[in-house]
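Example record used in the benchmark description.
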Amino acid sequence: MPEPSLERLRKFLLPIELAEAELKAKPAAAVTVLLRDGPGGFEVLLGERRKREGDPWSGQIGLPGGRHHEEDGTLLATAVRETREEVGVDLLQDAEVLGHMPPRAPGNKPEMLVVPYVALVIRQIDPAPGPEMASIFWCQLADLSSTLSKSVVSTILGVLAAKALTRYYLRGRGPITGFLMLPLVIPSLVLALALLFIMRRVFDAELSLYTVAAGHVMLCLPYSMLVMISRLEGFDRNLEEASFDLGESAWQTFWRITFPLAWPGIVSSLLLCFSASFDEYVLAAFLSGNQTTLPVFIYSQLRFPQRLPGVLALGSCILVGSVVMVTLSEWIRRRGVQPQEAGRGLAA
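Model output (structure tokens):
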């Protein structure tokens, strides 16, 4: 791992000593984010837990770790013990503990605080699943879900929904549109609580970044639809009809006629959805479980006064970036409309 990258990672993490303060607040546990430098970038060691009754994490895929015992003394000792028992890795000999991330309360155990320690493998290791693990594996960090994927999914769904609402006759078009736009008018707290109830009680889904992604897709879909409806209703439908008359199929017409004309709206929608998903906090706080997103991380940093200057600087950068994205989104949308309006003026 390059030394500059290692130093940046150290600055991102909290000092090990701060974790011990969590023992005085709530029942605590510790997990280990064990990293290694793989051929395709950084990889993290994950494990699938064996299914056992009474274990709130039974059958889940997660990090090695567990509850703090009094005989451990410190939370770091808890992380060392649990990592050795569950994956056969000795953190004191095989890795360097760089620090820890802000403690989090899992969605299924809100009365407990979990401290994630970050360790970097410093020599060749051969991890093996312990009695509590069914299997273990290395996963590239780049393979984990991202904000961009949520934006792309929201934009694709928005394009399809907008095309259906503007190009075809649908019974109950008004109520359908109003229902899809509900996330814009429902308070975020109410929406987050409703989604939490549906995820846990109806679908019995474990809270993770995937549930956050589902919530963000639902939240971003109205933004995408509004941009795409205005775009698809803004160009001449005779172009599509002429394409059909010349023997093109529906898919060829969409790809050769509709898609190029709608492209400015698609880019605008993508930027707008990315900004909305990237900045969203309430849904992520309720649906992320024991995982985290950037807004949740920033909010958790406010507990540490020494981190406040960096948090304020990061928040300012995000605010400026969001304004730039929204402004660029609107500029691209308007730029796509202007050539068409000019063409209509010439035709007239």
